[in-house]
Amino acid sequence: MNESTFKRRLNKDEWSNDYGYLFEGKKLEREKDRAIIKLTFIRHGEKELTNSSETALTRRGIFEAAVVGAKRDKKDTFSINYSPTDRTKLTGEIANLSEKLEGEMKEEALLGVKNVFSKEYLKQLLDIKRKMLPSDASILSSEEARRVDEEAARLQMQEYFSHGSAMPDEKTISPDEMAGKIETIIRRYVGDLQDTQKYALNSIHEVLNVTHDFVVASFLKKALGEYGETIKPGEGFEVIIKSAKSENEDVELILFFRAKEYKLDPQDLGCSVDIIQEMHHKEEMQNTLAAHKELINIDDLSGTSVELYSPSQQKSDKLLLFIPGSGLNAQSGLKFYDHFLQAGYRTAGINLPGTLKTRLAHQELGEMDLAAYTQEVEKTLKHLENEIGVKAKNIVIVGHSLGAMLGLQAAKNDKYGAIILLAGGIIKDTLKKLAIPPEKIQSFSEQANKKSVLSRTENDLKRWFNGEKVMGLESVYKDCLGKDSAQASYDAYTKAVDVHQDDFIETPGLIITGRNDQSISVKLNQDTAEKLNFKFRTIDSSHMIPLSPNAHQAFESIERFVKSINKGEK
Questions:
Q1: CB 41 within 8 A of CB 247
Q2: What span, in angstroms and rounded, lies between the C-alpha atoms of 338 and 267?
Q3: pLDDT of residue 19
Q4: Theoretical Cys-Cys bridge with 183: which of 189, 271, 390, 466, CB 3.0 to 4.6 Å?
């Protein structure tokens, strides 16, 4: 087809007879009291049918890309984002050139699928198509190839969507999290539109996002409910964002798909909010911390070790020792180390027995209970003093949940610089206020007495994160979950929490609890703080304060508290 025929057919029905789907966006008019951003999300143009995951565009795919460009509105700014693949980049480039849009092009990792599907799961999806293909796919006519591709895509989508909020395997994100990729982009531009200096009134701006069918379909399914059809090559949808008309109004969001409009709630797009950003943030923290980390074995037999993080420029003599909660390893303090590394503090995190999957399980070590855990914490503190050379008064113990109780045990002799409890303010005097029913106590004790260890699962992690606005955090931080956790009967547990309100005379203390904590109540933590004469803070968090999206609120309180100690204040 030559250029003149192509242009003639742009407004003719006969186009669809030759090339199938024609992307039609919503026509926009300027509004004098509003700025408008149109976010267009499309699947790349049709690709060649092969057994490979990375293939080139067909002739039809090239024209589909050109149509996308030719149908753009007149606007003030135009830019193109594409996922990290050749076919999406080419689709964007052709769209850009077809009408000489001259938009800025850049790669956007959020639009990709390669790095969030494991090789094993990607092979499983590709095998669905391979089973439908003859040994030589080139013998198929273009129409036959198209039918095979569409049917294979339908079956692949059906398999993936069957997992819902669950991960198909441990390295593949769930469909809900996939939908969160697009939501993250939408929220980014909603935030931009609220900046009146960036977008003037009576202006229109468009961002063309070229991605893959799984990304587009996942968001549509999440936003529109039961939608579960395949997305044709070159097909997509638009999200039109209009700035608020007044301070008392919110921005307006409209989803335009297949000639129908759907109003979206800016506060609740129905997807896994910012989960992809959380994943990228975690990777960035791990990369930063790796250069400052030293792993020290405390006891080869029990498997206890400590991760020591030292800043390039140390700004304080204090070392903050993090003790994880039940079943969690030192990596659950990832955000904690990152925050204080940047603030110039040394930090350390304990891997208690059984919580590192590379270590022996408790069953192979013999009896292991909470009392033994206390001994491991004491060994670690002595190592920091005797081998690393940190003075006891410069060690600040920071414990989370069970780790807070273990930290209290170690700190009750008034030897250390301070004790900070995250979602774990329980002492002998407040333990009875947990109000555990007698039958539950008996069941707990009977189960615990049968074995000295407790295997933790991702369901435990999900329960501890319950109360966070960001859903799916358990899948992001599941590597913080250890293999086993020490267990004890209820009687042994109460004996282990052998701390009273008169045990802390000189040691400064701080208790921080999450307002949405569904494991240990705010009231219980507050009662403990009053009895110990500790300072008390609450933040917008679940029980998992160290890994909450609002963890920085706790760390900022800790930093202020530690600085006050340096000034001689309790």
A1: no
A2: 29
A3: 43
A4: 271
Structure tokens at 189: 């531009």
Q: In terms of DSSP bridges, do strands 236-242 and 35-43 run parallel, antiparallel, or are they unpaired?
A: antiparallel
Q: What is the DSSP string of 188-253?
A: HHHHHHT-TTTS-TTEEEEEEEEE-HHHHHHHHHHHHSS------TT-EEEEEEE--SSTTS--EE
Q: Are 211 and 88 in contact (CB under 8 A)?
A: yes
Q: What is the DSSP string of 125-157?
A: HHHHHHTTS-S-GGGS-HHHHHHHHHHHHHHHH
Instruction: Tell me the domain boundaries of the chain.
Output: 23-264, 275-566
Q: Provide the pLDDT for residue 163.
A: 85
Judge whether 23-264 and 275-566 match in fold: yes
pLDDT averaged over every residue in the chain:
80
**Token pair of 149 as six digits:** 């591709």
- pLDDT one-digit tens code per residue, 240-254: 999 888 777 778 888
Q: Identify any residues that bridge with 268 across adjacent strands, giving them in sequence order.
A: 265
User: How confident is the model over 34-88, as pLDDT tens digits?
Assistant: 999 999 998 888 877 665 556 778 887 887 788 777 766 667 888 889 888 888 8
CA distances from 528 to 314, 421, 425, 499 (A): 33, 10, 6, 11
Give the pairing type, strands 319-323 and 236-242. Answer: unpaired
SS3 content of the chain, % helix, strand, coil (to 5): 45, 20, 40
Higher-pLDDT residue of 5 and 552 is: 552
CATH of domain 23-264: 3.40.50.1240
Q: pTM of the entire structure?
A: 0.56
β-strand partners of 42:
210, 236
How many CA atoms are closer than 13 Å to the CA of 338, on its beta-carbon side? 19
Each residue's pLDDT tens digit, 419-475: 999 998 777 666 655 544 555 445 544 554 544 555 667 777 888 888 787 767 887
For residue 433, what are the CA distances in angstroms to 95, 161, 190, 309, 436? 65, 44, 45, 37, 8
CATH class for the domain made up of 275-566 = alpha beta
Q: How far apart are CA 193 and CA 169, in angstroms?
A: 37
Quickly list DSSP for 386-450: HTS---GGGEEEEEETHHHHHHHHHHTTS-SSEEEEES----HHHHGGG---HHHHHHHHHHHHH
Q: Torsions phi, psi of 261, nearest 5?
A: -110, 140
Tell me the C-alpha distance between 520 and 507, whole Å: 23
> Tens of pLDDT along 479-505?
888 765 555 545 555 555 667 666 666
**What residues contact residue 450 under an 8 Å CB cut-off, 6+ apart?**
none
Going by C-beta distance under 8 Å and a sequence separation of 6 or more, which residues neighbour residue 161?
A: 175, 217, 218, 221, 228
Length of the chain: 570
Instruction: Supply the angle between the helices 142-161 and 213-224 in degrees, to the nearest 10.
Output: 50
